[in-house]
Amino acid sequence: MQNIYNDLVSVVIPTYNREKVIKQCLNSILNQTYKNLEVIVVDDASIDDTEHVVRSIKDSRLKYIRLNENSHGTKPRNIGIRAATGEYIAFLDSDDTWLPNKIERQLAFMKKNDYTDVLSFTGVIVSNNFTQKTVLKRDLKEGEHIIDYIINEGWVQCGTFMCSSKIAKKTEFSPTVRKHQDWDFCYRLSKNNARFIYLEEALTVYNMDEGNNQISGNRRFDLSLKWINSIKKDISKKNYYSFLVHNVTTNMILSNNRKKALKIYVRALQNRAVSPWGFAKGILKCMLLKHMN
């Protein structure tokens, strides 16, 4: 299929100690059917051989930026956004990959939905050592807040994002958010009146084999609490407690905060964030995980 657009698309890739997987990630970008790309790798002070692997790839579209100190946060993405010169910006984590036509399909979709301040996201393929699962969701309903959508649908992933460079540079990622960074970026975009459009195709492979998303995989439920409480005023009580049930309670229990988790389940039931059966399963989880910990 011949491309009918020639807009420059900047791809921002933050990385840290990904020497084993970043080449596969970069090849999936550089081999896209859409060729007018600028690929910006921002290395968060890796101490392995990541820099050598990136610099060994000879492609004029590839740019490498190395930070002097590890930032443990969103700084690499923001540096990539500031360095981008394309009309559009897409994001990918350095242990994930794209299908060959990801940019071509998504750019055409964005051109069809001709909005200036817009973020497009797609479905994903979740991959681990044993299986691959395609995850497709519905589009947003008319007037639905993006955070309500995320809480109800449970999946909006940064590696699927493409947005106008203008809105990305205006918004950036929060420098203080350590967990749910993808979701917080959507929240910040909504504050800048961005529109969100969903392409119902799985075009990104989200790899769970190499310690993907290490921060969100730990037991720091306080980081989830801090984030959701910072935006609490913009979501319903039902969705607030739904978020807590799905993103906080398990790590609370595993961190010996069983009573707090039980209180959340009670409030969730009161606000219809869980069904009676869901409440019963939550109580059972509190009991079982306590003994497994």
TrEMBL record:
<comment type="similarity">
    <text>Belongs to the glycosyltransferase 2 family.</text>
</comment>
<protein>
    <submittedName>
        <fullName>Glycosyltransferase family 2 protein</fullName>
        <ecNumber>2.4.-.-</ecNumber>
    </submittedName>
</protein>
<keyword id="KW-0328">Glycosyltransferase</keyword>
<dbReference type="InterPro" id="IPR001173">
    <property type="entry name" value="Glyco_trans_2-like"/>
</dbReference>
<dbReference type="InterPro" id="IPR029044">
    <property type="entry name" value="Nucleotide-diphossugar_trans"/>
</dbReference>
<feature type="domain" description="Glycosyltransferase 2-like">
    <location>
        <begin position="10"/>
        <end position="138"/>
    </location>
</feature>
<dbReference type="GO" id="GO:0016758">
    <property type="term" value="F:hexosyltransferase activity"/>
</dbReference>
<keyword id="KW-0808">Transferase</keyword>
<dbReference type="Pfam" id="PF00535">
    <property type="entry name" value="Glycos_transf_2"/>
</dbReference>
